[in-house]
Amino acid sequence: MDILIFQQLAVSLGLGLLLGLERERRGTPIGGIRTFPIISLFGTVCAQVGQTFGGWVVAIGMLALAAIVVSANFAQVRKGTIDPGMTTEVAALLLYGVGALIVIGHLAAAVVTAGAMALLLHSKRPLHNFASAVGERDMRAIMQFVLLSLVILPILPSEDYGPYGVWNPFKIWLMVVLIVGISLGGYVAYKFFGARAGSLLGGIIGGMVSSTATTVSYSRRAASEAALAPLGAFVIMTASCISIVRVLVEVAAVAPGQFGAIALPLSGMLVFSCLVAVALFLPSRKQAAKMPEQKNPAELKPALIFGALYALVLLAVAVAKEFFGSAGLYMVAVISGLTDLDAITLSTGQLAGSEAIDAVTAWRVILIAIMSNFLFKFGIVAALGSSALTRWIGPLSPPLLSQEERSYCSGPAKRPAILSTLAPSGATDRG
After folding, report:
1. Of 14, 17, 84, 179, which is most buried with the most CB atoms under 10 A?
2. Which of 285, 347, 276, 349 is nearest to 318 (CA)?
3. How many CB atoms lie within 10 A of CB 80?
4. Alpha helices in 134-210, H assignment, sequence order
5. H-helix segments, 355-424
6. Where is average pLDDT lowest: 6-15, 74-83, 122-131, 219-228?
7. Distance between CA atoms of 31 and 239, rounded to whole angstroms?
8. For 82-99, what is each residue's pLDDT tens digit?
9. What's the pLDDT score for residue 189?
10. Cα atoms in the 13 Å half-sphere on the side-chain side of 383
C-alpha cells in the first residue's frame, strides 16, 4: 500500500475544508464546506489516475467541473438568484488545480496557493475598501514602481563599469527598487489605515516611508503647538526604531551570510531605542495623532537621485578603502550619513557580503553613519521644532555616550549641543 497516495488525499482534503469553511460562512450558493473538499479531492484523484493513463484525465476533469459550475449558475438564475460575481466559481476551478498540483510533487506551491486563496476570499471587505480609497495619485505610485522594477530593471546590463569596477547598472538599480519598495509598503499602509492612524502606527509608517519627512512634520507641529512636544518626541523615536529595522532588512538583503555578526551590535541600539520609545509613550498616550500627508515614494526623479547618490557612495567607499583603509570608510560613513543612510548601509553590506571587509568593520561603519544621521535629524528638530521638543529629544543621548563624555556632560559646563545629537531620536532611513 502506497502511503504517499493517502498523504496526498489528506492534504487535499484539508485545503478543501479550509476553503469550504470560508465559502460556507459567506453563504455562497455554488459551494460550501462539503463541495469544496470534494472539488480538491476530485483534482487529486484525477491527477493520481492521470499518472497511469495520461494527463488527458486531468484536462477532462477540469472540463467536467467547469460544466458543473456553469450548470449550477443556470440553476441559480432560474430560481431568480442572480450573483454577478465569479469569485466562487473561479476559486472552485483553481482549487481543482491545487488538488492536482499536490500529486505532481509541488506540495509547497499547492499549500501556499490555497492559503493565498483563503486570505483573498476572507479579506473581501478590506480589499474593496482599500481599492475604493486608492485614487489616481496612488495608482500612479503603483505604476511607477512597476516601471522601476518590471520595466527598467530587467533591461539593465549586469556588468561592472567605471573606476574600480564598482558601477553595475543592474545591481545599483536593484538597490533603488529595494528602497522604493520598502517606502512604498509604508505608503500603502498609510492609505490602508488612513491619516488618523494612532501615534504608534504613525511612527511605524513614517519610519517606513521617510523618517526624515516624519521628523520635519512633527517638529513643525510641535513648534505650532508646544503641548504636542511629548507626542512629537514619541513619534520621532518610533520612526527611529523602524529606521533601524529598515537598516537590518537592507543588511539581510545584501549580506545574508554576514547578517548575524553585523546585526547583533545594531540590535542593541534598536533595543535601547525601543525602550526609550516606550518611556516616551506614557506622557503622550492621551494626545491624538493625525499623520501628515505622505508623498509618493515611487517618483522617478527621487529614484534617479538615490541611484546616482548610491553610485557615488560606492565609488567613495572604494577610493577610501584603497587609500585610507578602514579610517577612510569611517569618513565616508560620516558624510554619507548626513545625506542618505540607505546608500552607505547597502554599499557597506555589499562589501561585507563579498568579504571585501570584515563584519566588525561593516557594523562600525553603519553605526557611525547612523550616528551622523542623528546629528542631521537633531539639527532638524532644533531648527524647526519648539524648545520643548528639543528638550524632550536632547536628554536621550547619555546612555550612548562614552564614560568620558558622560563625565563631561555632568560637569559644571553646559553640555555642548553636538553631544545631544547622539540621541537615537532622529535616526532615519533617508537623509
Report:
1. 179
2. 347
3. 6
4. 136-146, 153-155, 169-193, 199-209
5. 359-384, 387-393, 403-409, 417-420
6. 74-83
7. 46
8. 565 678 888 899 999 999
9. 74
10. 10
C-alpha cell at 210: 521617510
Cell numbers at residue 311, please? 553610485
Q: Please, are residues 76 and 29 in contact by the beta-carbon 8 Å criterion?
A: yes
Closest C-alpha among 227, 232, 245 to residue 277:
232
The predicted-structure confidence for 38-90, as pLDDT tens digits, reads as follows 999 999 999 999 988 888 999 999 999 999 888 877 777 677 665 656 788 88
Cell numbers found for residue 288: 491624538
Q: For residues 188 and 175, give the distance between their C-alpha atoms in angstroms, rounded to a whole number.
A: 20
Give me 386's grid cell: 519648539
Query: Cα–Cα distance between 120 and 105 in angstroms, integer?
Result: 24
First to last CA, the chain: 65
Phi-psi region of 401 (alpha: psi -120 to 50; beta: other; left: phi over 0): beta
Closest of 214, 208, 277 to residue 247, by C-alpha: 208
Placement of cell 583603509 in the chain:
325
Amino acid at 388: A
C-alpha cell at 268: 542593541
Instruction: Give the cell for residue 66.
Output: 467547469
